[in-house]
Amino acid sequence: MKLNEKQLAQVDRQIKRLVAGDSYYGKILKEKKITGVSSQEEFEALPFSSKDDLRNAYPLGIQAVPDEEIVRIHSSSGTTGKPVIIPYTAKDVDDWAAMFARCYEVAGITKNDRIQITAGYGLWTAGIGFQAGCEKLGAMAIPMGPGNTEKQIQMMQDLKSTVLTATSSYALLLAEEINKRGLKDKIYLKKGVFGSERWSEKMRKYIKDELGVELYDIYGLTEIYGPGIGINCEKESGIHYWDDYIYIEIIDPKTGKTLPDGEEGEIVITTLVKEGAPLLRFRTHDISRIIPEKCSCGRCYPRIDMIKGRSDDMFKVHGVNIFPSQVEELLQNVDGVSSEYSIAIAHDDEINKDIMILTAEAEGRVNFEETAKKIGEMFKSKIGVTPKITIVPVGTLPRSEKKTKRVTDYRDN
To answer: Domain AMP-dependent synthetase/ligase: where (predicted)?
Structure first.
């Protein structure tokens, strides 16, 4: 999907603004003697930006406007080393709220809804993003923040929340608790808007059934405003993204070459109107594809497919590249196995060999030994490695109020 004339002009304006300033990216563009773009070819010749750049620019080297125009900063979650800090102008904050409100509208949420927000507040973009979009829409915000499951469920009943926003991990925890307490008939939820991590079909079905809600995947990342730059519609056939604010291209993660629409690769995002920290060709590491066809819902906003995972989520065992999405796809085809699993990888010095241990949950009605054997056989035939497998009862593995860490690698990298 090529830039249209308006988008090309917006990118050109961003470049000229950066070059005129003294920000981190302004200096890079000056060094490369880039002064603007007037064609798709010139755009695709622009250098990529990355999270490493943002760390190198720490704390506020990326800022592209004077201090007096910055009204807020956010920082990304789950990073190691230096955090990534993103400054926002008042217009950035308002644009983000407008995009988020649009997401709620696509999900069929109105000002009559009561939105229970369980995502984290503070430097993280999630909680405040969900709330700003809710207020822009005119719905009732119930800003619970994460944790305190007892109070979450009490407020859900007493305030008759109709929408739950959460990570999929915390939505699973709440669904399990509501199921355990037999409260399904005492809650009023109609919709769930979940983001920040990919989730398996098995987890999706459990949450949908136990909470009795329609599910919506919201997309975004701190570097590009935060959650709210896209969401799936009622047709559940990909994520609509707001191309009046961002431009998305898909690249081959190895070569950096832009791929044709329909081909799977890494999502690269350019902010078209962002003021505080504009980003050109930002590599997200999220894996998806642009869906070329128009959505049957009738909306004109373009779509990307559901996020398959991240290029940097890949881990290697015995020379085989493995993605968590492959593990989830395999487990969802095993009878009685839940969506929850964990993988530990270590090196056994005695035999000079890497060891992979998979712990998966299963319902009590199935034979754990046979289930482990079946998973092992499927791993060997479909993925090409044979892990050591432990089956535990459903509910044994820890649940998370934020994102769930699936893979722990103890090897010296």
So the answer is: 44-270
The ranges of the chain annotated as CATH 3.40.50.12780 are 89-312
Non-local CB neighbours of 245 within 8 Å, separated by 6+ positions: 95, 99, 225, 229, 271, 272, 273, 274
Pairing assessment for the beta strands 163-166 and 114-117 based on DSSP bridges: parallel
CATH of span 89-312: 3.40.50.12780
CATH topology of domain 314-409: GMP Synthetase; Chain A, domain 3 (3.30.300)
Distance CA 130, CA 169 (A): 17
Q: Is the peptide bond before 59 cis (omega within 30 degrees of 0)?
A: yes
Per-residue pLDDT tens for 242-260? 999 999 999 999 999 999 9
Q: What is the pLDDT of residues 107-144, one digit of tens each?
A: 999 999 999 999 999 998 999 999 999 999 999 999 99
Per-residue H/E/C for the chain: CCCCHHHHHHHHHHHHHHHHCCCHHHHHHHHCCCCCCCCHHHHHCCCCECHHHHHHCCCCCCCCCCHHHEEEEEECCCCCCCCCEEEEEHHHHHHHHHHHHHHHHHCCCCCCCEEEECCCCCCCCHHHHHHHHHHHHCCEEEECCCCCHHHHHHHHHHCCCCEEEECHHHHHHHHHHHHHCCCHHHCCCCEEEECCCCCCHHHHHHHHHHHCCEEEEEEEECCEEEEEEEEECCCCCCEEECCCCEEEEEECCCCCCECCCCCCEEEEEEECCCCCCCCCCEEEEEEECEECCCCCCCCCCCEECCCCEEHHHCEEECCEEECHHHHHHHHCCCCCEEEEEEEEEEEECCCCEEEEEEEEEECCCCCHHHHHHHHHHHHHHHHCCCCEEEEEECCCCCCCCCCCCCEEECCCC
